[in-house]
Write a structure and sequence with these properties.
The complex is a heterodimer of chains A (194) and B (371).
Chain A (H helix, E strand, L loop, with lengths): L2 H15 L1 H10 L15 H15 L3 H14 L4 H8 L5 H7 L3 H8 L7 E8 L2 E7 L3 H18 L2 E8 L5 E9 L15
Chain B lengths: L37 H7 L3 E4 L5 E4 L1 H5 L11 H4 E3 L8 H6 L5 E5 L8 E7 L6 E6 L4 H8 L12 H35 L11 H14 L3 E9 L1 H8 L1 H18 L5 E6 L2 E7 L4 H16 L2 E3 L2 E3 L2 E9 L7 H17 L5 E5 L17
Classes of the chains: A alpha+beta (194), B alpha+beta (371).
Chain lengths: 194, 371
């Protein structure tokens, strides 16, 4: 895996910071100059190298880059398919959270080879949720954090999300849904054309 | 799942409790007596309808109502709202009752016309009518588009969302694959551009030939350069087609290879033009003999399928003595001049020149035999 991930990171850096810092980071990381192929497999070390070099070039911490990458995946027009697929999960943010446990199966409908983190959601009541993200790749957990924050915006929900590391690279996200209808969410229809 | 607010559902008329019973293979009908309100039934079967014994709509699930926007379907005939086609035409309650427990194929009339739906009907107790449950089946993509449906319109047990998800996700992946193919085609074109080999004959191409020639000129090495052009090649193409033409080009490449030395550079520059660069070979007599042997071999009929191709060749060469460091284009130009002279002198000939000396054409004593 990591092809989709690396490709997204590449797009994020290029769109947000420009081709120059991206080219420098790719060269410094020994990445192919033509970029990564989303459907090919890469080593996790490649991801770490590229992330480290992007962080160095931009002078920003890796965690911040990963979280912003998660936001980028939801909000950038080039990734509208991802947002749409996630919005299929439910009519409001709470339903969307519930649907996350089904996400790995849904991803496998299209990408049978992809290793998707295992997600466990516990409804603690009163708008509090705990999402455990079991993955061999802690970076994915941070990206997920950014994606969830962006999805909350998309639904117009007011949430706070705190992340803490769990056992064996897992990540525990504490989600507090303060107001499911805080703002006007982005319009969403199941069909793409009217 | 969080209960959905009732306000999202269209209002329902009050309805008599409708006990629905299973098809009951081996199960006594009396075992299940359901008491469900129309609203509750609409939650688990948003596309159900209950028909009176006369075939009128007594109640309908919220998604079924959406198929007829702005229309009151309650009290109307089910057979006026839907066209029931397969496997037989069903136009009344007697027909529908006889098809209970079987898969129905039907299409709504009105704005949803053309949607291919499926359904099943079961009889209610004491001849109180029928419970019919419908689904969009595989046509759900079109239904979603046509009727502006949302995930609220499907029962939580319905796999419609998964189907939509799979279709969209596959479209996204297909898009990525198209992009990948596009990039691969671009990369292949670039690789071909940068390649050194002529794919048709396996000889070197113009690019490789240019770099070989440039190196010799730069180093001031002694060498000769032969320009070879086929005669009557166009006629082969015209008479027997391009496959025959390609066959001839491959054959000629083989002839050149059989006559050249390992250190020589053999190239096809395009079309029926060949170039041979011979490092260290400056003896005009040897070059003439080599050229004549090449022409002699090319002149022989080349079998192609049940036919044969007849071509000949003209050759011009330029000899570059050591230490001249000429411009590669000048060498090519001089060899071309000799080639044109050979063609002008009647084709099937070899002519050459030695550069850096008073230009003196080199010709064989007698014209070579033409085949």
């Amino acid at each position: 895996m990591y092809g989709l991930f690396l490709r997204a990171l590449q797009s994020y850096v290029c769109v947000t910071f420009g081709a120059e810092p991206l080219a420098r980071a790719m060269a410094a990381a020994g990445a192919p100059p033509e970029g990564f192929e989303p459907l090919l497999r890469y080593e996790r070390q490649t991801l770490r190298n590229v992330l480290h070099q992007v962080s160095t070039q931009l002078g920003r911490p890796e965690e911040g880059i990963l979280e912003d990458l998660g936001t980028f995946i939801i909000t950038d027009a080039g990734y509208s398919a991802t947002r749409r697929l996630l919005r299929f999960g439910g009519a409001n943010f709470a339903e969307f959270l519930y649907s996350l446990e089904e996400l790995p199966d849904r991803v496998r409908l299209a990408l049978p080879d992809e290793d998707v983190p295992i997600l466990h959601l516990t409804d603690l009541g009163e708008g509090q949720y705990q999402l455990v993200c079991e993955t061999g790749c802690a970076e994915l957990g941070v990206v997920l954090l950014g994606m969830l924050r962006a999805m909350a915006d998309d639904y117009g929900a007011l949430v706070t999300i705190e992340a803490e590391p769990g056992m064996e690279g897992a990540m525990i996200l504490s989600i507090r849904l303060l107001d499911p209808r805080f703002a006007e969410g982005r319009r969403f229809e199941l069909s793409t054309t009217g | 799942m969080t209960a959905r607010p009732a306000s999202h559902r269209p209002p329902h008329p009050p309805m008599a409790q409708a006990p629905a019973e299973p098809a009951g293979q081996g199960m006594p009908r009396a075992l299940v007596g359901l008491h469900v309100s129309a609203c509750e039934l609409g939650r688990i079967m948003p596309m159900h309808t209950i028909l009176t014994p006369e075939g009128h709509v007594l109640s309908a699930g919220p998604t079924l109502l959406r198929l007829f926007p702005g229309e009151t379907i309650l009290g109307k005939s089910f057979f006026g709202l839907f066209e029931l086609r397969a496997p037989v035409w069903i136009t009344d309650m007697a027909g529908l009752t006889s098809r209970c427990f079987h898969k129905l194929r039907l299409s709504p009339r009105g704005p949803g016309a053309g949607l291919r739906m499926r359904g099943i009907a079961v009889p209610l107790d004491d001849g109180k009518g029928l419970l019919v449950n419908l689904s969009f089946g595989i046509d759900v993509m079109r239904a979603v588009r046509k009727m502006q449906l949302t995930d609220m319109d499907f029962a939580p047990t319905d796999l419609a969302m998964e189907l939509l998800y799979a279709v969209e996700a596959n479209a996204a992946v297909r898009g990525e694959m198209r992009e990948l193919s596009r990039r691969l085609v671009g990369a292949r074109l670039q690789a071909q551009e940068e390649a050194q080999t002529d794919p048709l004959t396996g000889l070197k191409n113009r690019r490789a030939c240019d770099s070989f020639l440039s190196r010799l000129c730069r180093e001031g090495a002694s060498f000769s350069l032969m320009q070879i052009d086929l005669d009557y090649f166009k006629q082969v193409n015209d008479r027997l087609g391009h496959a025959a033409g390609d066959h001839v080009l491959r054959h000629v490449a083989g002839v050149l290879q059989s006559q050249a030395r390992v250190q020589d550079c053999l190239a096809r520059l395009g079309g029926d033009e060949f170039t041979v660069i011979l490092p260290g070979l400056t003896d005009p007599a040897r070059l003439l003999a080599m050229g004549e042997r090449m022409i002699d071999l090319v002149n022989r009929p080349i079998p192609f399928q049940d036919d044969h191709c007849d071509v000949s060749a003209s050759i011009g060469f330029a000899i570059v003595p050591e230490g001249l460091r000429l411009d590669p284009n000048e060498v090519l130009g001089e060899a071309d001049t000799m080639l044109y002279a050979a063609k002008g002198a009647g084709r099937g000939r070899v002519m050459g020149t030695r550069l850096g000396e008073p230009a003196e054409p080199i010709e064989p004593a007698a014209p070579p035999p033409t085949g």
